[in-house]
Amino acid sequence: MSYSNFTLEEVKQKFALKTIEKIDTFTDINTLNSSEILQIILQDNLPIAIASNSEKARSEMIIAPILVELIRNFGDKINLFSGVNFTVDDTQELNGICDFLITHSPEKLTISAPIITLVEAKKENLNAGLGQCIAEMVAAQIFNKKEKNDISTILGVVTSGTNWRFLKLEKNNIYIDLSEYYLSDLDKILGILASSIEQFK
């Protein structure tokens, strides 16, 4: 098994997780104003990505530019990994390729201090991606504990590019925001992502 094979029920049982499902879990988080650069990129890319309706196009033309915006805001405090092998514990089936990882570290060659895991929803089904996302969040938590990184919260994201859902892992509790955010909420999406980085200020 790998991350992508986990269902929500399987990952909850295997790692003894408790889910707390609420609407507007992240409602109190401040927005982060998107740059003019990002707005222009998305204005150009959106019609192409939506028309082709392929996961690759959505990943490259919508999701990646939004995540790169975080690099512009936080510089060498973080790094972004795309399509990397993140095998943490084969014995617990925490292995496989992650769509995107954001780390609280400037290191670009090796993964260090993961704080955000992002899963691209297959066939635009956000619920179906929850199991994979949570498995990757658990792996990030275990990784940080082994490395003695002082990171208490892992943010998880499942997105189709146009629709975004957020999760938070604290100890054995998974908080799932039942709200979905859309590209019209871009500044809120960026704010939620940024909140995981700003916890280290």
What can be said about this structure in brief?
The protein is of the alpha+beta class and 201 residues long. Helix content is 37%, strand content 24%. The protein has helices at 8-14, 36-52, 55-74, 130-146, 186-198, and strands at residues 18-22, 79-85, 97-103, 114-120, 153-159, 163-170, 173-177, 181-182.
Q: Would you report the number of β strands?
A: 8
The geometry reads as globular
Report the CATH architecture.
Alpha-Beta Complex
How helical, in percent, are the residues? Answer: 25-40%
Task: Give the biggest beta sheet.
Answer: 8 strands, mixed
N-to-C CA distance: 37 Å
> Can you give the mean pLDDT?
96
**Spans where pLDDT lies below 50 across 5 or more residues:** none
Q: Into how many domains do the coordinates divide?
A: 1
Q: Element order, helices and strands?
A: HEHHEEEHEEEEH
Rounded to an integer, what's the Rg over CA atoms? Answer: 16 Å
Question: What is the CATH first-level class name?
Answer: Alpha Beta
Task: Determine the structural class based on helices, strands and strand pairing.
Answer: alpha+beta
Count the helices. How many?
Answer: 5
- Topology-level CATH name: tt1808, chain A
Beta fraction of the residues? 15-25%
Your description of this structure?
With 201 residues, the protein is an alpha+beta fold. It has a single domain (3-198), classed as Alpha-Beta Complex (tt1808, chain A), CATH 3.90.1570. The chain has five helices and eight strands, in the order αβααβββαββββα. Strands 1, 2, 3, 4, 5, 6, 7 and 8 form an eight-stranded mixed sheet that branches. Strand 6 and strand 7 (173-177) form a beta hairpin. The longest helix is centred in the first third of the chain and has 20 residues, at 55-74. The model has no long low-confidence stretch (mean pLDDT 96).
